[in-house]
Amino acid sequence: MKLRIPKALAVGAVAAAMLATTTGCGGILGGGGSSSSADTGPIKIAAVIPLSGSSAPTGVYMKNGMQMAVDEINAKGGVLGRQLSLDLEDGACDPTQAAAAANKAVSNGALISVGGYCSGATLPTLPIFNKANIPMIIPAANSQELVNQKLPNVFMINGTGTQQAAAAVKFMVKDGVKSVALVDDNTSYSKDIATETKKDLASDGSVKVALSTSVTAGESDYSSAVHDIMGANPDMLYWTGYYQEGGLIINQLKAAGFKGKIMVADGSVDPSLVKIAGSANAEGVFATMTQTPDTIKGAETWIANYNKKFSSAPGPYSTQSYDAVRVAAEAITQAKGTKGADVIKALEGINGFQIFSGPLKFTPEHTLSSGGFQILVVQGGKFVLKDALS
Amino acid sequence: MTQLVWNGLFVGSFYALIALGYSMVYGIIKLLNFAHGDIYMLGAFVGFAMLTSVGVIPASMSITALLIVLLLCMVVTGGIGVGIEYLAYRPLRNSPRLAVLITAVGASFTLEYGVSAVAGPNPKVFPVRLEGDSFTVLGARISVPQIVLMVIAVLLMLGLNAYIQRTSMGRAMRAIALDTKGSLLMGINVNKVITWTFFIGSALAGAAGVMAGAYYGKIDFLMGFIIGLKAFTAAVIGGIGNIKGAMLGGLLLGLLEAFGSQWLGGEWRDVFTFGVLIAFLTLKPTGLLGERVTERV
Amino acid sequence: MSDNVDTTRAPRRIGKPASRISRLFESRQLGWAAFAIAVLFPFVLASNYAMSIGTTAVIFILLASGLNIVVGYCGLLDLGYIAFMAVGAYTSGIIAKAWELPILFTIPAVVIMCILAGLIIGGPTLRLRSDYLAIVTLGFGEIIRLTANNLAITGGPSGIYGIPGVDLFGLDLSGPVPFYYFCVAVVALMVLGSARLGKSRLGRAWRFVREDEDAAEAMGIHTYKVKLAAYIFGAIWGGIGGVLFAAHLSAISPQSFVFLQSALVLMAVVLGGMGNTRGVVVGAVVISLLPEFLRDMGNLRYVIFGVVLVAVMVLRPQGFWPSRAYEPEKLDEARKGKRDGGPRPGAPVTTAKGGTP
After folding, report:
1. What residues contact residue A207 under an 8 Å CB cut-off, 6+ apart?
2. ipTM of the complex as predicted
């Protein structure tokens, strides 16, 4: 049985190769592929974002932000005389589904991508868009791994994990914290921030890492982590995971009598954090966060428009998603066309285009020069600006 | 140290409550009820629905309200457990075990994603929260809600034990566990007893769900999966099919986990737990209190 | 995909003669027909998207046919099958990245690792009773995923990315259409292999063990070794599936190997018909494509899955397209009336008679 396989394999492979070359060179049969995107008609903007699964609520915020930008631009006559059309694909925060969704978007004739929320699910979509030569402006996903891929078509307009860690360390030093406990939830996003923070703290030297541990996401009882934190007795806990577990940990820490400060990363900045932790427990919790509509000065009209349009308040990543579409439109305008290489060049050349986090200019790594991270604090059950760190 | 022990015992009492249902059902019809952990989740959501529909509950009434909801939830989840048995397991009573197990996996899926479709995939914040002072005993910080929940759990377990040992239904359960055919010949209504077993096991898991919701404050539709596995592990450690073994196993697993994550780090805790499970199953499949099982498949 | 007429069937058939439709379904040409459909698919639809889900479906067929060896042939319920795929994907990903090897060169290492994983997981557990085995495999599946999540060599929670596509003798097969054909070729051979295995001497031993382990042992079959062999073959199939998966997605992370995935592969096997390669292939295609068609239904599709699983087990426990060879036995059993659970000493004798060479 085993001996017969190689021969058969070879025969099969040759047959497959022959077929592949005939179909491959014969111009893709049955249409499809990115060739269908003509130079006239609407410009297709793709976004792979979570529309089902546990991250779906954020997906809605992102979707609305994008839709708002698209509608505004179209009302002004579109880009280069062409209307924009948004192609939303559900990535469900799952790598396999996101890859299929990205392929679907490419097949639908997308010219530029403005999606990407979960870093783990965004990673496999990068090569797909890269192969199709489609520029990506990632509004939310911000793991350092995305940068490490060094793909020319990938641009990130959210601060990276490294930048978030730097902001966290800056605030810790400023606040006079002497020792800190780092707890992550063992996901790509969370571990990234924790590792970078540890690195920055080591090079800074004035703050000691009293504890660095991971918990398992999706559980209820975090008493062992709480026990470790109480044992290490740090001045501050920095939780780098999401709000579901963050709320529970804050609650259980306070119940155990923790007196130190607590800071959370941007994945925990959600009204539910306060609800799960209990409003008394959450009071005074710090957070590292890029701008949210609530913390941006002069965003009141924008928020009002958003409220009117979707009859709900904007949430995390609404602004970044809105900006991603605007940046895409700007780049296409400057490139005077939708050819991938030209748009990428235009994106690299953007200098001073005004977005929520300030004038935009990409670093050679295609990230924001400053992450725009600031420190929020929970006051009266809401996240408000504490320190802009500038 | 004492803190770790207390933490372990507290978590362990949840495991024990769920493990009881696993163990009872297994002892009586040799079925591994895979959906049992999801009954725990369902209990939490039923409690959530009841408390939300009632509206605002004054803080002074919260314990009373919670106890009433707890009892109601036990009835509802018990009924659902019976329903699952009737629809999914009873038709397969004489089928190979593989078929029944797959059915159980299917039932588990239906419950999980059914709840997610009805209540939405986002975690829910439980409307009533047990709050209370805490004090220190022998260096361990113990809070009043923890004690309340422990007392409820212990009462439920003692009640179950008395039921199994003292009542005629309990005797019938033990008889069926020993010899199904023999009990049938002795005039025991086997189907009725099995229905009761499912009812009691599911009610206990539902109670654990409500308690978890009230104590931790957050519930989500996948909360039953991991805890179901843990409870099974507890049942195996104690000796599956043995009621006291399930209680002992639950508490022991809680302790093992508390110390395991202390030694190995939080991220390795579940690896440690499943390692213990595998070690037990290979080295001492009868568990600590289980009797030798001669039957083979 | 191949012909699956079971030559082990007892020469004297019990029950009605096969109807015309049954004969059509038993036809030897069906495998070729399925292969032809797979080959012609890109001529109908060749968009990246279609190729992507096509490739996913083909890889899924491979996984299902591998699990079929374990669950279908040998009757060992494995709830952590995706762990083998993880082992394969990670092994090939790590090696291909570390030494910059073409991904196909990692296959020997993958096979070795999978055999090892099969031995490690199967070794201590296969002596257990079947329902214990199910939970233990589930536990092992979680252990493998958590370990991949915790170790540095596996890239931690972000996993491994930038895995090269397939390159065959300098021929780049990483484009969507060529890679699809590559997968179809590999999977067709593997499926053929698993079908042949089912008919081999070992395959007959597996079926015998499934039907009655005690009787099998009494007939001189070393049941432990036979079960371990099923496990190892299943592991290899899963591992190759992992290699294709890694090459397809170019990035792997622990999130891809959760219990849900194991359950989906199991569903494909059960729905299609345990033990029948054709049924399993159809089941795999349905299970892997259905979510794409039900994309808008969100979580409801898993509810449907769950209900279908229960309904199939209750109403048609042998699956939609079961292995025909066992129907006579089923009839036989029905005639004798329902018996108590546990071992059924009488029933398998018919199989045993035919099964002895």
Report:
1. A169, A172, A173, A177, A178, A179, A180, A201
2. 0.82
